[in-house]
Amino acid sequence: MSLNPREKRSLVLLIALGLFLLWVYYAVFPIRPMQQELERLGEQAKNATDQAHGLEVIAASEASVRREYEQLNQRVRTLRSALPSQEQESTLSGWLSALASQSQVKVQNIFTQAPVGTQQATLPPGPKVYKDVLVQIDALAGYHQLGNFLSLIEAQKQPFQVANLRVSADPKEGKRHRVKLLLRTFFTMTPGADAAESTTPETARPSP
């Protein structure tokens, strides 16, 4: 069957339209799954970036904690080197009595006691680095002798604080006064000794 020119043009257009639709079906439609896959990959990349950022933050925090630990450890080492060890606490009364004798202060009684209600008791639980000890001294001394005694104590490497000082007249002594002196000093703790102290009550040790 022969076709006139108009029918031939229509047939050619129909064939071209069919080929175009086939191209759209096979070429354009697969783009949507590719777009979905790209979106999924993009989401995974974003999650991976967020995780990497989180790891960087953790690494930075760990480095900061390590630096703080080293600084704290250095402070502890400095403190241990500056303070006498806990084992020297037993010689404290005799040592202070010797300083009193050098300044002509007559010691009548001297003993150590645990401080009550110190700030250290409010700290969080943990190993103790140091302990503070109170030393009570009852003595007879003049003002000049007492001043010399305090100067000798201040000149020592071991730190001392005057927690309390009371001076009252003694009717039996003309030039000497009754002195009640309370000193605070510090010792480094032996590792594990704080647990032993918690089970053993501390008692005062009067001088012989």
Question: Key features?
Answer:
208 residues; alpha+beta; Alpha-Beta Plaits
What does this structure look like?
This protein has helices at 5-28, 31-82, 92-102, 143-154, 193-199; strands spanning 106-113, 130-141, 160-169, 177-188. It is α+β, with helices and mostly antiparallel strands and 208 residues long. It has 2 domains: 1-82; 86-199, Ribosomal protein S6/Translation elongation factor EF1B (Alpha-Beta Plaits). Strands 1-2-4-3 form a 4-stranded antiparallel β-sheet. A hairpin with a 7-residue loop joins strand 3 (160-169) and strand 4. It is rod-shaped. The N and C termini lie far apart (142 Å). The relative contact order is 0.12.
Quick structural gist:
The protein has 208 residues and is α+β, with helices and mostly antiparallel strands. It is 51% helix and 20% strand. It contains five helices and four strands; from the N terminus they run H-H-H-E-E-H-E-E-H.
Q: Could you tell me the radius of gyration in angstroms?
A: 43 Å
User: Which structural class best describes the helix and strand composition?
Assistant: alpha+beta
Going by CATH, what is the homologous superfamily of the largest domain? Ribosomal protein S6/Translation elongation factor EF1B
* Strand composition percent: 15-25%
CATH topology of the largest domain: Alpha-Beta Plaits
Helix content: 40-55%
Query: Total number of helical segments?
Result: 5
Oligomeric state as shown: single chain
Indicate the CATH architecture of the largest domain.
Answer: 2-Layer Sandwich
Rounded to the nearest angstrom, the distance between the terminal CA atoms is: 142 Å
Q: Any idea what the shape is?
A: rod-shaped
Q: How many discrete structural domains? A: 2
Largest sheet: 4 strands, antiparallel
CATH class of the largest domain, named Alpha Beta
For the secondary structure, the number of strands is 4
Mean pLDDT: 76
How are strands sequenced across the largest beta sheet? Answer: 1-2-4-3
Low-confidence parts: 118-123, 198-208
What is the helix/strand order?
HHHEEHEEH
